[in-house]
Amino acid sequence: MTDVVAIFAQVEAAVSAALAQVLPAELAGTDPVVRRSDRADFQANGALAVAKKAGVPAHAVATDVAQELWSSGFKTLCSGPGFLNITVPDGVVWSAVAARLTDARLGVAARRAGERVVIDYSAPNVAKEMHVGHLRSSVIGDALVRVLSHLGADVVRQNHIGDWGTQFGMLIQYLDEHPDASWKGQGAETMSALDVLYKAARVEFEANPAFADRSRSRVVALQSGDEATVAVWRDLVAESERAFEAIYARLGILLDDGDFDGESRYNDALPGIVEELVAKGVATESDGAVVTFTEGVLNPDGDPVPLIVRKKDGGFGYGATDLATIRLRVEEYKADRILYVVDARQALHFKMVFDTARQAGWLPESVHAQHVPFGTVLGKDGRPFKTRSGKTVRLADLLDDAENAVRAVLEAREHDFTPDELSVVVHVAGTAAIKYADLSNTRTKDYVFDVDQMVATTGNTGVYLQYAHARVASILRKAGDAVGHLDATLPAHAAEKDLALTLDAFDATLRDVAETLEPHRLCGYLYDVATAFTRFYEACPVLKADSPAERANRLALCDLTRRTLATGLDLLGIAAPERL
Ligand code: ARG
Terminus-to-terminus CA distance in the chain, angstroms? Predict the structure, then answer.
């Protein structure tokens, strides 16, 4: 637990206390509405809002509150109809910096302790290449895992890979008939090889009815546990999982083999799911299929849209599998919250799944299930990102592209890295470029994949933040002083104060990220920290400070900046090297 009280929280508490002094008891406890401000350090609008509600003159309330705040040490001026502009004394700022300096958590409270969150993310498909959609799910899901864990939540990662379905009958049949088709043990190329075979199988399936029939028999064989068929399926799954893990390792995604939660895991539960839904009157038969409906979910013609739990042919739909995931996550994992980090186009699906689960009593009111949607990755032409020949873009190729672009940037400037160091840096910065570009865009919006912009060393990019971090690290190295002693009686320069108040917002930012599940808020915050640091460093010499006390205070700010950037980047799944 952190013992640091954020300056922001101190101001909020002081305004609340002052409001309580001034207002009648029944109005005490209203939100003081405190924000950073460019007119003073903070602005509080609570007096205005509450006065309006109470029908008393806002200006009078604000004046009285200001008076109270003065007496608790905050210089406060009223402006407009009842805004309060609050200035924090320098001593309060330095004391907060000192407190944070000795706090490993940098003032971040474990406000999610005791909450169990299941996060379903990444979910690539066996025998198919991972594409940019899986990149988004993996990168966003991982950032949420990291942030929620850091806030004390007990997070269960679930990688719901697509490892089941009739397509495997077709692929296995095809492999059987083409014994010389090679795909196994090809490392990174395994998935490409399988992807090619999968597509060939599909072509054959469409063109050759006899093959299609044999494929269908294979599906039956697979479903009934025929040993030879199941053995090939297991191979396909194992090889694919190895390939996924290689990508995760390269990208620095936390998912590992303990997190696989393939669709096949739910097979045995599906008939029971459907039976129970029918027995409870939640599902009905429609056209030979078994479906559920959600109130208000209509197609453009105004007809209710069905969630298919069992198809006409007796096979189970994704609806059934996703319902089964909810039951497991509620009953076995005791989730308080279940997040599905899946493409925005699945919004309706999840709405119906959650509604059906509630109707069936599998998702109690106390458990919060949420679809965490994300937008599409676009090419520079504004259309969903594809290769020039119209194929899906391999994740591995994207990473190669980003690394090559970083290498070009580094080679264009002077550096003294050995070739080995250079390849590490290129990897670290290339990965940062890709992940940060994804995370820094508003989650639900589409964004354009633009490698050159991603690796830019200025602007809101991962590489810029890594540079900022490395620069602060270098200042601290050069100083060589032990950071720790602070003089709280020194006046604070405006740029020092601004940096300190920006650092102060780390806890509030992470709280917001956890509430909104929007990592771009953390990106924007880290960018603010980096730019506030730049302004500070331009205005306030550190190594050439006027006095040892001033130097110590400034080094403390450097230290906090470095640690805040490193921790924040780590929560985004991005490395913060000492040198770049
Ligand atoms: N495997 C699916 C795909 O690649 C995504 C599955 C999403 N997760 C879930 N629980 N439905 O599109």
Answer: 33
